[in-house]
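[#protein-structures] MJ: dropping GAF domain-containing protein here for a structure pass
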Amino acid sequence: MHTWNLPAGADRAEIYTELLATAHALVEGEPDLVANLANLAACLKQLPGVSWAGFYRRVGDDLVLGPFQGKLACTRIAPGKGVCGTAAARREALVVPDVEAFPGHIACDADSRSEVVVPIVRGERVLGVIDLDSDRLANFDDRDAEHLTRLAALVAGLDWPA
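AK: finished. structure tokens for GAF domain-containing protein:
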């Protein structure tokens, strides 16, 4: 059994260092994708200012809701739609300081103010995305995207369905 709590007084770099170490320990030896994503979502939800944390899996062309922590969420996102669909289509992380200013933003949670989405990519295939929302404006920046990209690389190595 593993536990993880935010290190008291730590800055974001230290928090992400601890998060990545915990993520490696959580997934080591556990082959079940859903179990791994569920535990990782629970860790991500503890990050400063995060109101929703979770994963969308690519099923066919769409992104379909996977394990998450937070309020009810949109179940299915079409390619190129919203922040998640756009990040997946572009195969790049997107940091959105104000979701109201993002063209085509999908308002799954009316309280969401900022968002960061990182695609999970293996080779040429987008497997899904990591999605974090905050009820605070500009809660995320490029440093969050950089650290979450490292987590996405770990997640891409898990046992995803073909």
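MJ: nice. The first helix runs from residue 12 to 27.
AK: one more thing. Helices lie at 12-27, 33-45, 82-90, 142-156.
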